[in-house]
């Protein structure tokens, strides 16, 4: 299941668009993240094909996310030998959760804590309580491993695009209103942005672990 070496992924900023790593990579340390995956369908990508060019008229350096998800944890560092026990603890806590629907249709601008990256996201407007329940269980596992728990009063969201730096000034206000109007007016947006949550996923280094919901 795991490679023979304890080295995590190599750190090369040219491979991730110049993003600043929020913690240094060290031998045997694996960046780990728990989230709900979102499989983008063609209609969703069609919506992005309208949204992103419009946002780029305000911030040309914005780029589309390659994969889509809703975070249930911060990015934390796990030692290699902790990965399997951590995942097993997560799975044990996810077994009682049922699948659920959520809607993410409110455009919102986010930054990471260090303000080194800005994101355009779709905020969850229904299903928030179920996400809070999931985070509560993930947080318990984080506490067992002495890791950082999730943000207080979180805004669950699906990131659509990102850029280096703090671009809130350019994106909030007029641009945000226009992006929301695009979402509200998009054909079948109500159906398109209502999503069935079927699993929780954990990414640790270059390994992925899926935890199906009931």
UniProtKB/TrEMBL annotation:
The keyword Membrane appears for this protein: no
EC code(s) of this entry: 3.1.4.-
UniProt keyword Nucleus, yes or no: yes
Enzyme class of the recorded protein, top EC level: hydrolase
Subcellular location: Nucleus
One matching Pfam family: HVSL
Residue segments, region Disordered: 1-22
Annotated GO biological process: U6 snRNA 3'-end processing
Catalytic site positions: 69 (proton donor/acceptor), 157 (proton donor/acceptor)
Main location: nucleus
Reaction catalysed by this enzyme: a 3'-end uridylyl-adenosine-RNA = a 3'-end 2',3'-cyclophospho-uridine-RNA + adenosine; a 3'-end uridylyl-uridine-RNA = a 3'-end 2',3'-cyclophospho-uridine-RNA + uridine
Family the entry assigns: Belongs to the 2H phosphoesterase superfamily. USB1 family.
Function statement: Phosphodiesterase responsible for the U6 snRNA 3' end processing. Acts as an exoribonuclease (RNase) responsible for trimming the poly(U) tract of the last nucleotides in the pre-U6 snRNA molecule, leading to the formation of mature U6 snRNA 3' end-terminated with a 2',3'-cyclic phosphate.
Protein name: U6 snRNA phosphodiesterase
Organism of provenance: Homo sapiens (Human)
Gene: USB1
């Amino acid at each position: 299941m795991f490679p023979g070496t304890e080295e995590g992924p190599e750190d090369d900023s040219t491979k991730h668009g110049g993003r600043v790593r929020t913690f240094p990579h060290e031998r045997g340390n694996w960046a780990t993240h728990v989230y709900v995956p979102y499989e983008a369908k063609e209609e969703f990508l069609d919506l992005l094909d309208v949204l992103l060019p419009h946002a780029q008229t305000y911030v040309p350096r914005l780029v589309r996310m390659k994969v889509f998800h809703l975070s249930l944890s911060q990015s934390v560092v796990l030692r290699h030998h902790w990965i399997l026990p951590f995942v097993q603890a997560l799975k044990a806590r996810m077994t009682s959760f049922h699948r659920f629907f959520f809607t993410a249709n409110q455009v919102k601008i986010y930054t990471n804590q260090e303000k080194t990256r800005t994101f355009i996201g779709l905020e969850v407007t229904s299903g928030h309580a179920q996400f809070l329940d999931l985070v509560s269980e993930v947080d318990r596992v984080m506490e067992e491993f002495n890791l950082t728990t999730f943000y207080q009063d979180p805004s669950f969201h699906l990131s659509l695009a990102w850029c280096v730096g703090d671009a809130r000034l350019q994106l909030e206000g007029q641009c945000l209103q226009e992006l929301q109007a695009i979402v509200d007016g998009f054909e079948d947006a109500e159906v398109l942005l209502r999503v069935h949550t079927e699993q929780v996923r954990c990414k640790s280094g270059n390994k992925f672990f899926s935890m199906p919901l009931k």
